């Protein structure tokens, strides 16, 4: 996909790099040239412009863009104005970062459906990781159930899910398996990536360094995570 990110601060630049690594064509936009220069050789294209200036949008390929992300985190007013201009000029999906409850209210009044809170979401994610010991990543569905990413130990290598009797032994469902691999991005750079193998069957065998994406109760995920350190 082609994605434009407005605001190349810590969050915006990290997002731009991650999206590029996963094969997307990313255009980064920022008012400060030093931020633009930091990413100019790392993503598809960078542009230095004032996103609060409506006339500046004539230089952006909005018609060919699938998603616009407003990641501005320093100036709430600039973020709101940028979102308002995009709402008028851009017909595809807009994702906007919110910096406060008032900002939330304004974005909802504009009709923005995709509102993100990176700091709050990162804190919630970290809380899940701390509470569920030895879990690499975690998504809480509610207070009782989660989908979590757990790295298996060497004892699982070359064994199938059926061999492990996984559902009975751990009271968890394996949603999918993420496997490390090396691939080239569209710029030709060699990248270490994670490949999702799809819905695993009973005869699917676990390989070294595999990550299991499991669904179940938090207490069962924590127990399984602890078992993987033994």
Description:
There is one protein chain. The protein starts with a strand and ends with a helix. It folds into two domains: 2-117, Rossmann fold; 130-227, Regulator of K+ conductance, C-terminal domain (Alpha-Beta Plaits, 2-Layer Sandwich), CATH 3.30.70.1450. The mean pLDDT is 85. A hairpin with a 4-residue loop joins β7 (137-140) and β8. It has helices spanning 10-21, 33-39, 76-89, 101-110, 118-131, 161-164, 166-170, 218-227, and strands spanning 2-6, 25-30, 45-48, 67-70, 93-97, 114-116, 137-140, 145-151, 173-184, 190-196, 211-217. It contains eight helices and eleven strands. Helix content is 33%, strand content 28%. The strands form two sheets. It has a six-stranded parallel beta sheet, with helices on both faces. It has a five-stranded antiparallel beta sheet with strand order 7-8-11-9-10.
Distance N terminus to C terminus? 42 Å
Supply the number of structural domains: 2
Query: What name goes with the CATH superfamily of the largest domain?
Result: NAD(P)-binding Rossmann-like Domain
Order of helices and strands: EHEHEEHEHEHEEHHEEEH
* Number of helical regions: 8
Helix content: 25-40%
- Mean pLDDT across every amino acid position: 85
CATH class of the largest domain: Alpha Beta
Strand content: 25-35%
Largest sheet: 6 strands, parallel
Strand order of the largest sheet: 3-2-1-4-5-6
Number of strands: 11
Shape: elongated
Q: Supply the CATH architecture of the largest domain.
A: 3-Layer(aba) Sandwich
Q: Which stretches of 5+ consecutive residues score pLDDT under 50? A: none
Class by SSE composition? alpha/beta
The CATH topology of the largest domain turns out to be: Rossmann fold
Radius of gyration over C-alpha positions, nearest whole angstrom: 21 Å
